Amino acid sequence: MTIQAVMFDFSGTLFRLEQDESWIDELTGADGDPLDVEAQAELMRRMTAPVTQILEFTDEYQHAWDNRDLDPELHSKIYLEVLRQSGIPQPEQAKALYDRLIDPSEWTPYPDAEAALKELADRGVRVGVLSNIAFDIRPAFREHGLDAYVDEFVLSFEVGAIKPDPAIFRLLLDRLGIAAENALMVGDSAEADGGAKELGSAFALVEPLPTGEREEGLLTALREHSVL
Fold first, then answer.
1. 106, CA 20 to 30 Å: which among 46, 96, 145, 172?
2. With pLDDT > 90 as the criterion, what percentage of the chain qualifies?
3. Which residue would you say has higher pLDDT here, 108 or 101?
4. Burial class of residue 42, CB neighbours in 10 A (0-12, 13-18, 19+)
5. 156 pLDDT higher than 90
């Protein structure tokens, strides 16, 4: 099988929302006291967990959770509830932190993202970004000069489908003009990103580690599948 296109996930794969302690320095709990270190770390984990549900919700909020990546309003609703349940009862503080989450400029590319994308482009391999997300991530790529290496973006809230639904992979493949068996999906979730295998595409799993702890995860994945 010759790989003619690579599909990349966004969060935890090409970019990561890194913990910035300045975001939460002024956050206070229900008692008005600042959050301790453990609470801060848990809060960031809850804000960036890509797939796993770690809280219990009422039916209303469960619907929002299940459909958060299809509708920006539901995304805002559920993550503000996540923050409330995580010890941030003040709405203005929760909204300020949520706004950080959806700000593309706050996301950091992995150290090898540019090298991986550029080398694929230089080799004539088509590149697509496929993300379950409720906000436009293209500005993050433009800010770091990476948009020049991406042929197509397929974002769940724009197309009305979420991974692992085969339809969203098929849509990107059609836009790239590449057969599924000639494509590789690279992502940090075997459950969501691994759905590409149902169509016959190869799949490479990368760990969503902090950017400082994963220097060549993307390049390694591409080399292991003989794309580079």
1. 172
2. 73
3. 108
4. middle
5. yes
Backbone angles phi, psi at 185, to 5 degrees: -105, 130
In the chain, the amino acid numbered 146 is L
- pLDDT band for 149, please (50, 70, 90 cuts): very high
**Measured between alpha carbons, how far is 50 from 175 in angstroms, rounded to an integer?**
25
Helix (H, G, I), strand (E, B) or coil at 196: helix
What is the 3 state secondary structure string of 7-61?
EECCECCCEEECCCHHHHCCCECCCCCECCHHHHHHHHHHHHCCCCCCCCCCHHH
What CA–CA distance (Å, rounded) separates 80 from 214?
Answer: 30
Task: Give ∠ CA 106-108-114 in degrees, rounded to 5.
Answer: 140
Tell me if residue 204 falls in helix, strand or coil: strand
Q: Residue holding tokens 């760990």?
A: 207
CB atoms near residue 224 (< 10 Å):
11
Q: Is residue 197 predicted with pLDDT exceeding 80?
A: yes
- Residue 187 in tokens: 């992502």
pLDDT at 51: 58
Burial of 14 (0-12, 13-18, 19+ CB in 10 A): buried
CB of 185 within 8 A of CB of 196? yes
